[in-house]
Amino acid sequence: MPLEIVCYLCQQSAEKILKAYILAKEGPLVKTHDLYALIEQCRNYDQQFTQILNKGNELTDYEALTRYPAYDAITEDDMHQALADAKDILEFTQTKLQSRCLGQLE
């Protein structure tokens, strides 16, 4: 699989879980691919989302860079970093979603 596709899918997976968190908080869903903006919106509900702002900022570029021919070559190091950043965002947000669900059961 081309590196560009892996990086794009990392951005997409992070975008979807952030939007799921916003929806779980019954927040308005903004039509954007900007992970930084989505994380800022998540911070309205939990300031700890500040911890992943940089990871979101890094991944955001892959949404556009990989879909248009004028992107710089993406390296294996870029791909590994994208995978790590996406994993961190997914795990962090999943923990927040799980704690919200557990709180509702109590």
Summarize the structure.
It is built from 4 helices and no strands.
Largest sheet: none
**Element string (H = helix, E = strand):** HHHH
In terms of DSSP E residues, the strand content is under 5%
How far apart are the first and last residues' alpha carbons, in Å? Answer: 44 Å
Envelope shape: elongated
CATH topology: Four Helix Bundle (Hemerythrin (Met), subunit A)
Question: From the alpha-carbon coordinates, what is the Rg to the nearest angstrom?
Answer: 14 Å
Structural class: mainly alpha
Number of strands: 0
Mean pLDDT: 87
Helicity range: 55-70%
Unreliable sequence segments: none
Number of helices: 4
Descriptors:
single chain, 106 residues, mainly alpha, Four Helix Bundle (Hemerythrin (Met), subunit A), elongated
How would you characterize this protein structure?
By secondary structure, this protein is an all-alpha fold. The chain has one domain (3-98): Four Helix Bundle (Hemerythrin (Met), subunit A) (Up-down Bundle). Helices cover 70% and strands 0% of the residues. It is built from 4 helices and no strands. The chain has helices at residues 3-24, 35-43, 53-65, 76-105. Helix 1 packs parallel to helix 2 (35-43), helix 1 (3-24) crosses helix 3 (53-65) and helix 2 (35-43) runs antiparallel to helix 3. The mean pLDDT is 87.
Write the layout of secondary structure elements.
Elements lengths: L2 H22 L10 H9 L9 H13 L10 H30 L1
Helix pairs in contact: 1-2, 1-3, 1-4, 2-3, 3-4
